[in-house]
């Protein structure tokens, strides 16, 4: 009888333990939480344990995981989503942009010249003046003298006769230099059969053969290589500023679109020092063949423990940008007859890299904006895939995929190629892109998000910062409205290609995770996944489109840690 009583007591205690909920480290409660999980799309509360999602449900249900040690975060009715994933941007560029002349918001050429003059006044004779962000097609008024759609450096020379000036275009695919910088590079009056042409780029010349100061695509390197190299101390400062910016903008994961070993080493240093406040997925710079050869031998670096920093992809630059007329087109530019843009990388290199990457375990991500570039890259991918028929789940990507011939759109889905797009480019570029491409090409194949998704392709989202600000809210707005940030035109450009809000959120979360092979770890709010969250003051999934741009990120959570809070 005594043994029976003991057994009964033990059974009751065991059942009691089973009924007792595990204590959470954190609970986020009393909010509107969009999970991006189709089977459970919206909840009120989430419990977190050891940086992972323990449970989710109603606030009442999740309160069962509350203990004296639990940190309770009352969302006060705010909106929480999975942590946002920036799928294509340039990490160090974001930081350095804060240390140089930021020309992103300059509205006229005169304003640009004024900023340079201010920098010259503070500099020593001979010091380089550098900056980034100008875009002549976004200026509210154009200078009187323009050559091939660009300004000339006459005013720049007046304010900086002794200091070399090198200002990168917002797209990164052109630059603007004064005469002092051109002189140091050995660029003067150019004559010959094809004056100004550089392999993969162009030195823009006036009618007399004199350089105007504008260099497109690979021609920028003629001056850019002379700019003094960055110091390790300045690099750390830039990375610190970039990480701070990501946290403030609600970004918990970041795809760096092409960097070298120095940046990899710096990120590893920050990781080891506990300074990373976001997760990072690195693309190796394809412009460095020696770097690629070293990594082919080494193989991918996949962080399967902390999921903080992985290197398993390669970035290739295959054409230029539309703003600089460098995007490689099948037909000539509407506003520059006889010009087709630039193939900035021989297409056979795409094939060669792909054939080395597949057996080595690397993903290949190719920058392609023009329809010719997209077609050529797809051809190279398809040929490489055919040589490795047993290789599965490769998830090769085309970065930007902005302008595609209608015949090539279905190939994305058929080949399983991810379209890594940036919706904000529609808002910024569409008003003038029609001048470059004409109406038919715009309607048939420009920014065709729905057509790509209907082909079966995964479409990710981002900003290409520092080409655009890294803030995801304007890109989300562009995804669902297809309008400029001023709210024009009514109904949006080519409105049939709008994303639904659910599609837009997925493109910024779960699809971004898929594009880096991490969809089982993050990208949605599900039990067992990472506790990465972004909290907004407004319900971006329900408020009128016109109010989306007024919403603010109130909190950013990465791995169960609050890395930013506006409150």
Automatic annotation (TrEMBL):
Q: Where is the Amidohydrolase domain?
A: 71-564
Q: Which InterPro entries match?
A: Amidohydro_3, Metal-dep_hydrolase_composite, Metal_Hydrolase, YtcJ-like
GO molecular function ontology, one term from the record: hydrolase activity, acting on carbon-nitrogen (but not peptide) bonds
Q: Which PROSITE patterns match?
A: PROKAR_LIPOPROTEIN (PS51257)
Q: Which domain of life is it from?
A: Bacteria
**SUPFAM superfamilies per the UniProt record, alphabetical:** Composite domain of metallo-dependent hydrolases (SSF51338), Metallo-dependent hydrolases (SSF51556)
Query: What Pfam family is a match for this entry?
Result: Amidohydro_3
Q: What is this protein called?
A: Amidohydrolase family protein
Q: Which organism is it from?
A: Algoriphagus machipongonensis
């Amino acid at each position: 009888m005594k043994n029976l009583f003991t057994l009964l007591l033990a059974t009751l205690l065991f059942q009691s333990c089973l009924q007792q909920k595990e204590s959470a480290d954190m609970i986020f409660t009393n909010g509107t939480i969009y999970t991006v999980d189709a089977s459970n799309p919206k909840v009120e509360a989430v419990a977190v344990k050891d940086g992972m999602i323990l449970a989710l449900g109603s606030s009442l249900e999740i309160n069962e995981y509350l203990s004296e040690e639990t940190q309770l975060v009352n969302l006060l009715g705010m909106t929480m989503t999975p942590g946002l994933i920036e799928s294509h941007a340039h990490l160090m560029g974001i930081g350095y942009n804060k240390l140089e002349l930021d020309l992103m918001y300059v509205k006229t050429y005169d304003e640009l010249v004024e900023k340079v003059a201010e920098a010259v006044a503070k500099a020593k004779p001979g010091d380089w003046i550098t900056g980034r962000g100008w875009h002549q097609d976004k200026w509210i008024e154009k200078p009187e003298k323009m050559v091939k759609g660009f300004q000339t450096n006459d005013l720049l020379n007046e304010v900086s006769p002794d200091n070399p000036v090198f200002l990168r275009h917002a797209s990164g695919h052109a630059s603007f230099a004064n005469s002092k910088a051109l002189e140091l590079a050995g660029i003067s009056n150019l004559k010959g059969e094809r004056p100004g042409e550089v392999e993969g780029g162009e030195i823009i010349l006036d009618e007399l053969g004199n350089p105007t100061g504008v260099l497109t695509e690979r021609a920028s390197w003629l001056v850019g290589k002379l700019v003094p190299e960055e110091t390790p101390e300045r690099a750390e400062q830039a990375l610190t500023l970039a990480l701070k910016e990501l946290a403030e903008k609600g970004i918990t994961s970041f795809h760096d679109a092409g960097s070298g070993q120095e940046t990899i080493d710096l990120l590893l240093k920050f990781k080891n020092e506990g300074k990373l406040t976001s997760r990072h997925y690195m693309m190796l710079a394809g412009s460095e063949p020696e770097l690629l050869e070293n990594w082919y031998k080494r193989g991918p670096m996949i962080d399967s423990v902390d999921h903080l920093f992985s290197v398993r992809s390669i970035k290739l630059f295959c054409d230029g940008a539309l703003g600089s007329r460098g995007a490689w087109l099948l037909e000539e530019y509407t506003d520059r007859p006889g010009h087709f843009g630039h193939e900035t990388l021989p297409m056979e290199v795409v094939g060669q890299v792909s054939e080395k990457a597949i057996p080595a375990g690397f993903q290949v991500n190719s920058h392609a904006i023009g329809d010719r570039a997209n077609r050529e890259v797809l051809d190279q991918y398809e040929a490489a895939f055919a040589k490795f028929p047993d290789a599965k789940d490769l998830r090769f990507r085309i970065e930007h995929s902005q302008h595609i011939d209608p015949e090539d759109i279905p190939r994305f889905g058929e080949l399983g190629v991810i379209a890594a797009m940036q919706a904000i480019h529609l808002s910024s570029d569409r008003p003038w892109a029609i001048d470059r491409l004409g109406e038919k090409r715009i309607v048939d194949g420009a920014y065709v998000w729905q057509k790509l998704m209907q082909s079966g392709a995964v479409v990710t989202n981002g900003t290409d910062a520092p080409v655009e600000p890294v803030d995801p809210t304007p890109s989300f707005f562009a995804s669902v409205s297809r309008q400029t940030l001023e709210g024009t035109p009514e109904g949006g450009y080519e409105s049939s290609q709008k994303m639904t809000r659910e599609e837009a959120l997925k493109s910024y979360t779960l699809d971004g995770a898929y594009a880096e092979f991490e969809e089982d770890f993050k990208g949605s709010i599900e039990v067992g996944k990472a506790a990465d969250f972004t909290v907004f003051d407004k319900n971006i999934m329900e408020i009128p489109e016109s109010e989306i741009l007024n919403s603010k990120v109130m909190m950013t959570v990465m791995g169960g840690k609050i890395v930013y809070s506006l409150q």
